[in-house]
Write a structure and sequence with these properties.
Cofactor (chain A): FMN; FAD
Helix content of chain B: under 10%
Protein name (chain B): Sarcosine oxidase subunit delta
Shape of chain B: globular
Bound molecules: flavin-adenine dinucleotide, zinc ion
Radius of gyration of chain A: 21 Å
Number of strands of chain A: 18
Largest sheet of chain B: 4 strands, antiparallel
InterPro entries (chain B): SoxD (IPR006279), SoxD_sf (IPR038561)
Distance between the termini of chain B: 19 Å
Largest interface: A-B, 24 and 27 residues
Order of helices and strands of chain A: EHEEHEHEHEEHEEEEHEEEEHEEEHH
Number of helices of chain B: 1
Radius of gyration of chain B: 15 Å
Number of strands of chain B: 6
Shape of chain A: globular
Oligomer: heterodimer
Distance between the termini of chain A: 35 Å
Family (chain A): Belongs to the SoxB family.
Structural class of chain A: alpha/beta
Strand order of the largest sheet of chain B: 3-4-5-6
Helix content of chain A: 25-40%
Order of helices and strands of chain B: EEEHEEE
Pfam families (chain B): SoxD
Strand content of chain B: 25-35%
Largest sheet of chain A: 8 strands, mixed
Structural class of chain B: mainly beta
Chain lengths: ~400, ~100
């Protein structure tokens, strides 16, 4: 599909109903995860008397702020399974949702700059292959062939010593993904309610029976939290704690350029990741601010570092201009893996902790979270991601291992 | 970028410091008596306050000393800086000071 065939305007893609006084299930958070969850609840479990409550506008949180990188080259078996399932869903969803969200499988490279990086990367390629995830190890020449604008000379501070490459990875248009899910949810009878902030919960004993919102009280049998950076704020209202820390994470774009950047390049070590959007902007991200924060903005020195790294790796970027920067609030866990499952409150479920990398997981998060909400039990894929792992010690430690440094 | 007033060195850019997470989290008094749940709380659970939050910072490229800071996690306003071991100040009664020490 080309740019002159852009999908319908979002205003016409879903109704904007008044909230009903009760639903079979309420999903808190109208980002990609909340919408995907509602979609799979309706499609796979026949639950259509449900609502998605969003305090702002649909998908205006991290969903609208992320750099849209989709890949499944994670190290540990549990992660490879869930992210690869997500990638397989990404491959079929445009057809299933009848909406082209421009999923572009242009490949993702994760650069190695030190001997330690090289060893870790080669190990991850091996682990990926054993898990049926496409992965290759590239030497610097092969890196250059795939992405000619990359500087592979050895007189820079951290020369490129090779890269892992996942050809099926890529990017998608995030707003269109949200609109695609929202449109199908609406068709299936789901109420999407914007400007509706959840401010508290109604409980009978330890069981949740409703939510208090800025648009009144809504009774419900089940509540699913999909509020990303605000999950611990909601958990606190419900009377339990989550092992989550919220941090600002920024992204930026340049002005439009001709196609120069054919793939996605990520570097954990010098910490920058770059792709070129469909329209032509160079889209860049880096690390989180070290401190906790709920302000949707980040520190300037993070941008300074990422630009220094970008210009050294891609010398032609030196003449590009930064057009816009913005921030989101990401929910990080100690093992850099998500939490999807039951909570200490009966009938309340949580999907959170996706941190800086949850866009790629959106379809699998929705699928498994819907399963857990509908059946009260985990799906095979989200079983290892239960809240209990922090107590049992069965952590899924993707820090560094999954080519993310945060 | 935050301008942080180190109690020993004065106001410096955030880049000179490292963040150490929530303040006032004491090492368990009898570690051998803890249940798995209590260990989980000590190791992995921290407050994630939206608003005034007491946290630890170290002036890594300066005096290398740790100190505590009360900071608003929404506005990023630094409300108080105080020594390790001192109790969390009540910001309503202890006026925050600017780097120059003037009342804010
Ligand atoms: C700058 C940046 C770059 C990123 N890059 C990538 C990337 O390249 N690849 C990748 O895989 N991931 C990336 N991520 C991470 C990804 O965006 C998130 O993990 C993912 O979007 C989280 O799920 P979500 O879409 O549902 O969250 P969100 O879109 O944040 O949805 C949560 C929603 O809950 C709402 N909410 C909160 N509190 C309440 C309340 N009380 N009542 C009602 N609603 C409430 C919020 O308004 C929000 O809309 C990035 C994130 C950022 C910020
Ligand atoms: Zn100092």
């Amino acid at each position: 599909m080309s740019a002159d065939h852009l999908p319908e305007h979002p205003d016409f893609l879903w109704r904007n109903p008044e909230p009903k006084s009760s639903y079979d299930a309420v999903i808190v958070g109208g980002g990609g995860h909340g919408l995907a969850t509602a979609y799979f609840l309706a499609k796979n479990h026949g639950m259509t008397n449900i609502a998605v409550l969003e305090k702002g506008w649909l998908a205006g949180g991290n969903m609208a702020r992320n750099t849209t990188i989709i890949r499944s080259n994670y190290l540990w078996d549990e992660s490879a399974a869930i992210y690869e399932h997500a990638l397989k869903l990404w491959e079929i969803l445009p057809e299933e949702l009848e909406y082209d969200f421009l999923f572009s499988q242009r490949g993702v490279m994760n650069l190695a700059h030190t001997l330690g990086d090289v060893r870790e990367s080669v190990r991850r390629v091996g682990a990926n292959k054993l898990n049926g995830v496409d992965a290759e190890w590239l030497d610097p020449q092969q890196v250059k062939e795939l992405c000619p604008i990359l500087n592979i000379s050895d007189n820079i501070r951290y020369p490129v010593m090779g890269a892992t490459y996942q050809p099926r990875a890529g990017i998608a248009k995030h707003d269109h993904v949200a609109w695609a899910f929202a449109r199908k949810c609406d068709e299936l009878g789901v109420d999407i309610i914007q400007n509706c902030e959840v401010t508290g919960f109604l409980k009978e004993g330890n069981r949740v029976v409703g939510v208090k919102t800025s648009q009144g009280t809504i009774h419900t049998e089940k509540v699913g939290l999909a509020a990303a950076g605000h999950s611990s704020v909601l958990a606190e209202m419900a009377g339990f704690r989550l092992p989550i820390q919220s941090h600002p994470l920024q992204a930026l774009v340049s002005e439009l350029h001709e196609p120069v950047h054919p793939t996605v390049v990520m570097s954990n070590h010098v910490h920058v990741y770059v792709s070129q959007a469909h329209k032509g902007e160079l889209v860049m991200g880096a690390g989180v601010d070290s401190y906790n924060g709920y302000g949707q903005r980040g520190s300037f020195h993070v941008i300074e570092h990422q630009m220094a790294a970008a210009v050294e790796l891609f010398p032609i970027f030196a003449r590009a201009h930064v057009l816009r920067t913005w921030g989101g609030i990401v929910d990080t866990t100690m093992d850099a893996s998500p939490i999807i499952g039951t909570t200490p409150v009966e009938n309340m479920f949580v999907n959170c902790g996706w941190g800086t990398g949850g866009f790629k997981g959106t379809p699998a998060a929705g699928l498994t979270f819907a399963h857990t909400i509908a059946t009260g039990a985990p799906h095979e894929l989200n079983k290892p991601f239960a809240l209990e792992r922090f107590e049992t010690g069965a952590l899924i430690d993707e820090h560094g291992a999954a080519a993310v440094a945060h | 970028m935050l301008l942080i007033s180190c109690p020993n060195c004065g106001p410096r850019d955030e880049t000179e410091f490292h963040y150490g997470g929530q303040a006032h989290v004491a090492y368990p008094e009898s570690p051998d008596a803890l249940t798995d749940r209590q260990w989980a709380e000590y190791l992995f659970y921290r407050d994630n306050t939206k608003g005034a939050f007491a946290e630890r910072w170290v002036h890594s490229t300066g005096c290398r000393q740790w100190f505590n800071m009360l900071r608003d996690t929404v506005s990023y306003d630094i409300q108080a800086i105080y020594k390790m071991g001192e109790p969390r100040p009540d910001v309503n009664t202890t006026a925050a000071t600017t780097p120059e020490g003037a009342k804010k």
